[in-house]
């Protein structure tokens, strides 16, 4: 049995259907009293109340039973399930970016070196980033790049475009104007790990009992770096004749916002390269997935009498839901029939799909929709 397809409501310790409880209670009362009950009997009113209260108790018992298992636990109970396998929930994380410091070579020549200490703050409005390591500028090396982390946890530090983080709180060196600006988009900030992402890591936790040799172990340790990581693919590079290269491991990482930043990839590399986590003979490479871009161009033929605006809004909503389910997964093929099925909402007679075409996506690739065009045909059909 595939437990991943098991529905929450099917996991029960006791029967909690109200009709079944009511029927059992009535049958028990009639057997004990020798009296056949009619709907208007006063006993039926009392039994109805009793059966309802017992059903609530049974539902609470079943929910308590589900909360013992990581596949169905939520909130604090999920944290307790994680504690059983030494997998705590990830706290809110701060965004990261790379900041380039620079100064005029002539000014640097006068002082020989300009030391920029770790923890130097560079801001964009009210959001500040602190450098993680020290840097030195010289006349021969008038620019240097270092990683910086946002001083506030959460998504507030995400999405600052290159050049926006450029305000130095304090000039590190007197007499020399040092400029600073981010050269990468800040990313990686996230709120506390939600239940679904945490649940996936808990279910992977037994793989971590080994060093990162099994595929599941590499995936577990990669996901544990940051809660923005939503999918991980682990494989071996292949030779020209399709044979896996022994001793080399390739880890592909996808985030909830799409491509991972270089700063996040560095964090994953560091996590997977610790000698206590990987076999000594493994060479691990961490990379972003290869994006396979496609566009959606669909025309909806409607039934006669359908409201085009209403149907078009429903189709766009259906597409958004369909695409959202694929956005955080690697290796999902582009299947026109699936897209047509998603767009065939109430009022749609036919879906004419001009693009995309059928395309098989490799496990380490990511199908990315870059533009959406959905319109309605001028003519309607009776059906």
Characterization of this structure:
Residues 294-374 form the Baseplate J-like C-terminal domain. Residues 98-189 form the Baseplate protein J-like barrel domain. By secondary structure, the chain is α+β, with helices and mostly antiparallel strands. The protein has 9 helices and 14 strands. It has helices at 18-33, 42-66, 75-84, 105-111, 195-204, 215-223, 262-273, 308-327, 336-343; strands at residues 94-102, 113-116, 121-124, 127-131, 135-138, 143-153, 167-168, 179-182, 229-235, 248-255, 283-287, 290-302, 348-355, 365-376. It is extended. It starts with 17 loop residues before the first helix and ends in a 7-residue tail after the last strand.
Q: What layout of secondary structure does this protein have?
A:
Layout (H helix, E strand, L loop, with lengths): L17 H16 L8 H25 L8 H10 L9 E9 L2 H7 L1 E4 L4 E4 L2 E5 L3 E4 L4 E11 L13 E2 L10 E4 L12 H10 L10 H9 L5 E7 L12 E8 L6 H12 L9 E5 L2 E13 L5 H20 L8 H8 L4 E8 L9 E12 L7
Parallel strand pairs: 10-11, 12-14
Antiparallel strand pairs: 1-6, 1-8, 2-5, 3-4, 3-7, 4-6, 9-10, 12-13
Helix pairs in contact: 1-2, 3-5
């Amino acid at each position: 049995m595939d437990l991943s397809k098991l529905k929450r409501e099917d996991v029960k310790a006791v029967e909690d259907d109200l009709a079944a409880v009511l029927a059992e209670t009535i049958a028990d009362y009639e057997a004990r009293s020798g009296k056949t009950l009619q709907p208007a009997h006063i006993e039926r009113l009392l039994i109805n109340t009793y059966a309802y209260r017992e059903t609530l108790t049974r539902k609470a018992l079943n929910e308590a039973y589900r909360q013992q298992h990581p596949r169905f636990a939520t909130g604090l109970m999920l944290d307790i399930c994680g504690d059983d396998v030494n997998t705590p929930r990830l706290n809110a994380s701060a965004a990261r970016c790379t900041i380039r410091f620079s100064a005029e070579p002539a000014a640097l020549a006068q002082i020989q070196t300009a030391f920029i200490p770790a923890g130097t703050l560079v801001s964009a409005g009210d959001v500040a980033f602190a450098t993680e390591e020290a840097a030195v500028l010289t006349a021969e090396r008038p620019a240097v790049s270092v990683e910086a982390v946002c001083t506030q946890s959460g998504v507030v530090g995400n999405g600052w475009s290159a050049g926006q983080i450029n305000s130095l709180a304090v000039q590190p060196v007197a007499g020399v104007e040092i400029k600073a600006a981010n050269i990468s988009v800040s990313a990686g900030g996230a709120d506390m790990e939600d239940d679904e992402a945490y649940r996936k890591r808990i279910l992977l936790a037994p793989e971590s009992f080994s060093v990162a040799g099994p595929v599941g172990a590499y995936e577990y340790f990669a996901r544990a770096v940051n809660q923005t990581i939503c999918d991980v693919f682990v494989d071996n590079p292949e030779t020209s004749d399709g044979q896996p290269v022994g001793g080399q491991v390739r880890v592909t990482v996808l985030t909830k916002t799409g491509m991972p930043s270089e700063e996040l990839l560095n964090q994953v590399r560091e996590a997977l390269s610790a000698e206590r986590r990987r076999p000594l003979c493994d060479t691990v490479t961490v990379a972003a997935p290869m994006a396979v871009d496609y566009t959606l161009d669909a025309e909806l033929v409607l039934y006669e009498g359908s409201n085009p605006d209403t149907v078009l809004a429903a189709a766009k909503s259906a597409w958004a839901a369909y695409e959202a389910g694929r956005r955080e997964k690697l290796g999902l093929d582009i299947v026109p029939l699936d897209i047509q099925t998603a767009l065939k909402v109430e009022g749609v007679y036919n879906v004419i799909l001009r693009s995309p075409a059928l395309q098989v996506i490799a496990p380490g690739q990511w199908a990315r929709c870059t533009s959406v065009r959905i319109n309605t045909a001028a003519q309607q059909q009776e059906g």
